[in-house]
Write a structure and sequence with these properties.
Layout lengths: L1 H6 L1 H8 L2 H27 L9 H25 L13 H27 L3 E3 L4 H38 L1 H15 L1 H4 L7 H17 L5 H20 L2 E3 L5 H4 L9 H16 L2
Antiparallel strand pairs: 1-2
Helix pairs in contact: 3-4, 3-6, 4-6, 5-10, 5-12, 6-7, 6-9, 6-10, 7-9, 9-10, 9-12
Length: 278
Amino acid sequence: MPTLDRVHPFFAFFAEASVPIRVGVFFAVWVAIWLPIAIPLAIALKWHPFKPLEIRQKLPLVASLYLLAPIVLWAAAWVQNVPFSHYGLSGNLDDLGSVSRGLALGTIGLVVLFGVQTLLGWIEWKSENWKQLGSVLLPTLFLGLWIGVTEELVFRGFVLGQLEQTYGLWSGAIVSSLIFALLHLVWEGSENIPQLPGLWLMGMVLCLARGVDHNHLGLAWGLHAGWVFGMASLDSANLIGYTGRASDWLTGLKEKPLAGAMGLLFLLTTAGALWAMI
């Protein structure tokens, strides 16, 4: 690639590298340009890597990292000589419709999940906190859409796209979902280990959503956003509490739905709904 060689040999190396190296370099570059921002932030917030984050620590760190993602993705697309839309978002009305369907499916799915557990007596609703819900809906919707689009572009757009070219769709989905799950340890440390199977399965469901949407990310983005929106709204308003009538292995260890059988069943049910859309 003579043009890239003239600009910088690193670009040629990235474009011609094997897929595992290319994916590794992508994350290394992303972290490298984030560190000058992250280190002062971490010091100011008194956070240490692989230690659980308080919400006041997590938001500034995640925001600073995710703001850089479009730059790194654009650079990777430029080096590989593909349009940004190659990652699965074109910004057209079809994508908007897919996002809306995914958002509805994700949100309704959570309503069913917690509704069933309410009927079984496993969770209770804190009625005194309902008035707080209205004030958090808009911020959590924005948060869900932002986290959703960033993580889908990175993991189901770039990473899965790279792996799929060499290893095929299913192998690419398995590996990209594993990377997606493991990288969540950065934010929550060992507390996230019980959620790893659920996070991996979540990644696989989102890969399926991409396939259902003909390799576009609109449906996966909406689904991911719906989950983040729903969970963040419940947490911010402190709306639910666990009664202790069911084992943590059912409802989720440390009150994390993805670390329990119900959360895994919820993801499998969502996968079934997506499969029915094919």
